[in-house]
Each structure stands twice: as structure tokens, then as C-alpha cells.
Amino acid sequence: MRKFPNALVIMLGFILFVSLLSFLLPKGEYQRIKNPDLSYVTVVPDSYREIDAEPLKIGQILLSIPEGIIGRAELIALIFLMGGAFYVVDKTGAFRDGIHYMTEKLSGKESWALAVISLLFTTGGALNGLQEEIIAMIPVLLFFAHRLGYNTLVAVGISYGSAVVGSSFSPMNPFGVGMAQKTAELPLFSGSVYRIAVLILAYLLWTMLIIRYANNNKTEKPKKSSIQPHKMEGRNIIILLFTAMAFIIVIYGLVILEWGFNEMSAEFFALGIIAGLVGRLGFNGTAEAYIEGFKEMTFAAIIMGLANSITLILKQGLIIDTIIYSLFTPLQYLPKSVAAISMMGAQALLHFPVPSYSAQAIMTMPILAPLSDLIGISRQACVLAYQYGAIMMDMIIPTNGALMAIISVAGISFNKWLGFALRLTLIMLALGALAVIVGIYIGY
User: Is residue 361 scored above 80 in pLDDT?
Assistant: First the structure.
């Protein structure tokens, strides 16, 4: 059996595929205007037209690779500095010391441990669309799962998977529902009660599915090296407290101070320095640990940049609006319920070439909001179809740089991840579709 392509080959394959599409599909565009009530450019509904334009040149396609990496510079810096900081903390032995202590206390309560981890990451996804930040946490999560007797798929599913579920079903994800409601001209975070109810159901369903898989596919737990209870070292407790404090500060910065990637990078860099010194690595030891962490994160950073290259080619090739027009225009001729589910399916398909769900909201909601009025679907239901259809696809699309980076760091091939996640994703999409239909019939 031939070896399945690795993440780099898959990303380059998609770059080649969308480059070919730019030659095959008609070029077209919507008019765009700067909305005075919003801080970004929005699409003008019913303004699509085909245009004559030169096809992309080979040089432009090749340039999209470094340009895509440069365009994600802030995120790549976060991956390096956060990953380096976590590597320093791990080098001090604090993570492993803490995990030994936790797994000893959680012996016989492994399912509850997974439920708590799932709740934490679901909350992170719901509050702030947590994804890329998980890349640096993967080595620690793998070790934690191994100590509990679970495999790597469980470690990624209960962390990244839970975060995607939280992001998709969130009542307040600013990059998802917040962006979609603003562009659909709805009050920000309106209709939250219904979304919270569906989010609770989604969390329970996803966690149950992961726990069932985990318990059916247990690995051999490491044997206890001693009958004596594990006792944590004092300096490791201090390092873990600093790490926990760093995450609290990040949450405060993101929610209250409107931090971006650079502020997060600076904070985690400081965490690494403090952890190294407290952990008695010294200046040289801390620097060497950082270098090792940078090496571990390099591949993940490049994958994030290549994912951006795909979007650049679609925009420069002037075919992204053509894809949007082709997907959504036929919906106006369908019955309400069928149109709503088709809208959700079209958003899911569109997420392959547009892996940024905030960009997808800006591109599609100005078109879909008036279309929903025409069909007789509320704009809230339209936003539901977007967030459940588009964001849940982050679980399986190979054009999502965060997913590809995470499974690469975890040592999971894409086909193995797809075999694990596809059925679970379809179940969650079915829950989303049911929530959309119920929303329509209760007048949501």
C-alpha cells in the first residue's frame, strides 16, 4: 500500500488544484463598499458580474507561497514563541511532574478527566475561537492522554475537536457568530439563549462520542514506578502556577483589552524566560530549550503560511466570488427548510477554498441575508446555517492550517485523522441541521 501524502504534500497539492481552477472557472466579482457602520469592506448583494482578466502567471502562483507565509507573520510568531515557551516549561519537568500527580489522582476517573478537558476547550472555542493556540499544547496533551491510557486521536479530539465544536455552536465567538451577525445587520450576540441551549447539547454529544471511542480503544497505561504517592517539587508547582496565570492574563487580554497575536506572543515569551530561570535551567539552558522548541514548531508554522497561500491564489485568480455566486444563487428557488439546509451545506463546501471562517462571514452574509428575507428564513437562522456549516468543517478540511499543523505535531496522518473525525463531524453537522430546522419552525 502506497504511503498517504503528508501535510506538506497535501497543502502543495491544494495550491496546485486552486491554481488550475483559476484557469478553468470564469472570472467574476461582486462590488464591494466600505460600510460606515462597520470597520471592513462588505459585499454588495446582486452585484456579481463576470469580468475579462488575464489568467494568473506561473510567477504569481510561485510568489503566493512566500507571500502566504509573510501574510501570517503574526500568527507564525505566536506559534514559535508560544511553542518555545511550552518547550521550556516541559524541559523543567513541571508539566510531566504535574501530569504524574494528576493522573495518579484521576486513576479510575479517566472519563471524568476527558469531560473536564473537553469542557475547557469547548469554552475556549466558544469564547474566542481557540484553534492555533492548541498547536503548542499538543506535546503536553499527548503525554497526558498517554498517562491516562488513551491514544493520540483522543488527545487531539478532546482538545482541538472540542474547541471546534465550541467555536461552531458558540453564542459569542467574535470571529464567527459575532462577525456574521454584524454583516447580516443583526444586534451583536442576539438570540444567544437558543444558541446556548444548542451548545450544551453539542458539548454533551461530542464529549460522549469521544469518551466512548476512548474507552473502546484504550492503550496500556504506564505502570507505576513506585507504590509511594507522587509528590510534586515546589519549583514545579510555582512554574505551573505561572503558566496558569499566563492563560488567565491571555483570556483577560483577549476579551477586555482586545489583544492580538503579538501581545500573546510577548506574554508567552516572558513565561518561557521565567519558567526556565525558576526551573534552574539558567540563561543558556533556557535559550537552548527555546531553540529546540522553535525547531519543533517550524513545520507547523510553514503549514499555516501555505494555507494562506491557497486563499491568495483564489483572490488573485478572481474566482472566489464565482464560487460563492454558483453555490448560493440557486437557493432562492427551494422551499424554506430545504433552502436552509442547502445553505448550511453550501457554507460547508465553501469552507474548503475559504478556510478563514471570519472571512467567509464577510464574503457571504451580505449576499445571504437579503436572500434569506426573500425565501422567508430569518436572518438568525441564516447565521446558524453559516456557523454550523462552515466552522464545523474546520474539523476535517485539509486547507485549515491549524488542523494540519496540529495533526503533524501529533504524528497523525491526514487519512488517519479523517477516518477518525469524519463520522463524528457528520453527527455534529446533523445536530446543527436539526437546530436550524427547529429554529425556523419556532420562529427563531
Answer: yes
> Phi first, then psi: what are they for 6, rounded to 5°?
-80, 180
Q: Which of 228-242, 301-315, 352-366 comes out lowest in average pLDDT?
A: 228-242
User: Alpha-carbon distance 279 to 291, whole Å?
Assistant: 17
Whether the CB-CB separation of 293 and 83 falls below 8 Å is answered with yes
Tens digits of per-residue pLDDT, 135-173? 888 988 998 898 888 999 999 999 999 999 999 999 988
Q: How confident is the model at residue 310 (pLDDT cuts 50, 70, 90)?
A: confident
Condensed to tens digits (0 to 9), the pLDDT of residues 168-209 reads 999 988 888 988 888 888 888 888 999 999 999 999 999 999
Does residue 241 have a pLDDT over 80?
yes
What pLDDT digit, counting tens, does each position of 372-384 carry?
A: 887 888 999 999 9
CA distance 205 to 342: 23
Q: What pLDDT sits at residue 104?
A: 78
Q: Find how far residue 94's CA is from the centre of its chain.
A: 27
Contact 231, 100 (CB under 8 A): no
CB-based contact 297:405 (threshold 8 Å): no
SS3 per-residue string spanning the chain:
CCCCCCHHHHHHHHHHHHHHHHHHCCCEECCEEECCCCCCEEECCCCCEECCCCCCCHHHHHHHHHHHHHHCHHHHHHHHHHHHHHHHHHHHCHHHHHHHHHHHHCCCCHHHHHHHHHHHHHHHHHHHCCCHHHHHHHHHHHHHHHHHCCCHHHHHHHHHHHHHHHHHCCCCCHHHHHHHHHHCCCCCCCCHHHHHHHHHHHHHHHHHHHHHHHHHCCCCCCCCCCCCCCCCCHHHHHHHHHHHHHHHHHHHHHHCCCCCHHHHHHHHHHHHHHHHHHCCCHHHHHHHHHHHHHHHHHHHHHHHHHHHHHHHHHHHCCCHHHHHHHHHHHHHHCCHHHHHHHHHHHHHHHCCCCCCHHHHHHHHHHHHHHHHHHHCCCHHHHHHHHHHHHHHHHHCCCCCHHHHHHHHHHCCCHHHHHHHHHHHHHHHHHHHHHHHHHHHHCCC
pLDDT of residue 2: 61
